[in-house]
Design goal:
By secondary structure, the protein is α+β, with helices and mostly antiparallel strands. The chain has a single domain, classed as HIT family, subunit A (2-Layer Sandwich), CATH 3.30.428.10. The strands form 3 sheets. Strands 1-2-3-6-5-7 form a 6-stranded antiparallel sheet. The longest helix has 18 residues. It is globular. The chain starts with 7 loop residues before the first helix and ends with a strand.
């Protein structure tokens, strides 16, 4: 099976993948991302007809029934995060729900991810920009306007090639510098409570 269909087995037979599956029913499956780009990174996989819909083409009518699952997934992600990390002050972890405008995998999947982007799997400018540029469609942006350029794959792909931007600063392609900055920010806020 092609890598583009790597999520299909989780959708069709979640029981078979129980060590990776956090929740499932007849509408969705929630799994851990195998290559997390943040301290917590889960994937919410819609089942049925929605699995073949392109993220940039999603309608309000299609996304609205998923909202309770998105909220549940964010709660599970937050609980998973706090099993490992404790805040040094009173901050709460921020969990995002987003889609990629031109995903590398065919089955529709919603990223449920902490906003720290602290992970050894975040290795390239492409990885960073897939979450830190307009390539990432926040769930509350659905549906995209008809004129939104992210509906076009070529434009979306061009977003991944942009210079990396973090807190308004331009880091060009310096992923090591960006990762060091992200690590420093993370370590200033969070302390690991289990190994």
């Amino acid at each position: 099976m092609s890598f583009r269909y790597a999520l299909k087995p989780f959708i069709t037979d979640p029981k078979r993948h129980s060590k990776d599956v956090l929740f499932y029913d007849d509408k969705v499956v929630l799994i851990r991302d195998k290559f997390p780009k943040s301290a917590i990174h889960l994937l919410l996989l819609p089942r049925g007809d929605l699995t073949t819909v392109a993220p940039a083409k999603l309608t309000k009518e299609q996304i609205d029934p998923l909202n309770e699952y998105i909220n549940l997934a964010k709660e599970i992600a937050s609980n998973e995060f706090y099993k490992i990390w404790k805040c040094k002050n009173n901050e709460k972890v921020k969990i995002l729900a987003l889609l990629h405008s031109a995903p590398s995998l065919n089955n529709l999947h919603i990223h449920i991810i902490s906003d720290d982007f602290h992970s050894p799997s975040l290795k390239t400018k492409r990885h960073f920009n897939s979450f830190q540029s307009p390539f990432a469609i926040m769930i509350d942006e659905i549906p995209l306007d008809e004129e939104d350029m992210r509906r076009g794959r070529n434009y979306s792909e061009s977003l991944l090639k942009r210079n990396m931007q973090l807190h308004g600063d331009d880091y060009a392609g310096k992923i090591k510098v960006v990762k060091q900055k992200l690590q420093s920010e993370f370590e200033a806020k969070w302390i690991r409570i289990i190994n």
